[in-house]
Amino acid sequence: MCMCMCMCTYLQFVDVENDGKRSKAELGPTTPFSSDHHRKKSKLKLESISHSSLFFFLLYKGDCFISKSSQVTTKAIYYIHIMGGLLVIVLCVLVLVVQPHPANGSSNGGSLGLDGAARRSLEEIGICASSVITRGYKCQEIHVTTKDGYILNMQRIPEGRVPSPSSGGKKIRQPVLIQHGVLVDGMTWLLNPAEQNLPMILADQGFDVWIVNTRGTRFSRRHVSLDPIQPEFWNWSWDELVAYDLPAVFDYVYSHTGQKINYVGHSLGTLIALASFSEGSQVDKLKSAALLSPIAYLSYMNTALVVLAAKSFVGEITTLLGLAEFNPKGKPVSDFLKTLCTNPGVDCFDLLSALTGKNCCLNASTVDLFLKNEPQSTSTKNLVHLAQIIRDRVIAKYNYGRPDYNLMHYGKFLPPVYNISNIPHDLPLFISYGGKDALSDVRDVQELLDSFKYHDGDKLSVQYIKEYAHADFIMGINAKDIVYNQVVALFKR
After folding, report:
1. 437 is catalytic
2. In the structure, what pLDDT confidence band is assigned to residue 238 with cuts at 50, 70 and 90?
3. Which of 208, 451, 470, 472 is catalytic?
4. Among the options 437, 441, 444, 472, which is catalytic?
5. Which of 44, 184, 264, 425 has its CA 20 to 30 Å from the CA of residue 199?
6. Quick check: is 267 catalytic?
7. SS3 string of 36-102?
8. pLDDT at 41
9. Domain around 370
10. Are residues 51 and 79 in the same domain?
11. How far is residue 97's CA from residue 371's CA, in Å, rounded to a whole number?
12. Which of 267, 276, 334, 353 is the catalytic position?
């Protein structure tokens, strides 16, 4: 008899209730995340979940697969790996996570349409109206349909607040496509003031900016025939982002601009780009790419919660089985968090540093806006696929768990590998990574860089920022000076 459990839990940060209100001075101007003073005074309010990071555990004993019913189908199979013939615990900590409590302080990004009892929901008015046009930029809401029927939302910022100079009566603006990571959406790029967020910096520098919202996030929850309440809507992993989403948005932007595209990806946005380019997809439409906090090889994720994960009681997470949509705000994961936070030595106040590394340069008001907007749903299958990278230490397509199922999907017993070294050696690349990033560990980035050892020397730029962690690359108050100016320079070559 098989004994098998698949645990998928999003370790959400908890709100903190203080004896008194925090002042901006108490929090500090750029580090609103933790202090001994607040930790002693705070108590956990576990009923109110804010945000956080993802854990995957796959436990195996015997030949067992997980399904919503007694009949195993290809949609429900999760790959299980055997270690020592008995047990495997696979940990996956992904993406951007932020502070457990909203920080006080005014926001220069206050035109996000998030405050006020009478306001329309952000989902109704869209990112353009709430976050771009109000800052003096032109913006268009665009919808693109993938070949497998998902309707993706994009925002186009065609020019800066001061239009770029014209040449012969025709404005010349290179397109830039910006892709977010998992469990967030395109709004994360726009939380800082206009002079500090990447899309508007690029627009003001004369670029035609396109922001992508991945399938399953709040602005891309439509399909030509499926509904998000149907499990079939969530039957995809990041393979489908490579095979369908990226080609759809590339084709749309290329056909509407007639120019090759500059690409920016953060976290998962780097993985799908690397996988796509390695297969030769989209490279004919690509001018250059900037990869921020790259997620590719994940062998050395060094989060402090690995030990906790290994010792966690797995029985409590069985309620998550059968959930096709992974909703970070759902009850099953918040219930599991309550159990984790009762463990001795577990610090549920300062999970940010434990999960992503200590971000150096986040503003309290930006974190506040982040918590009002994120996290977003993704598919459980997507997270299982990401966990496979950690376990197998290889960048490969989704593993269906049995040779016959892999044979049915791929024509071979093992899933095909994405060979990063196949990326054209003359493609201009900029890779920026941080020394404090617990998700994109320095050793994993070095392994990624080994894939580019034959890349043309003048086409590869690598930036190492000792003090940066995962969230600093998209919300850091000094990211413009340290990172974004480098991106602009690459795209202007």
Report:
1. yes
2. very high
3. 470
4. 437
5. 425
6. yes
7. HHHHHHCEEEEEEEEEEEEEEEEEEECCCCCCCCCCCCCCCCCCCCCCCCCCCCCCCCCCCCCCCCC
8. 35
9. 3-103+300-408
10. yes
11. 10
12. 267
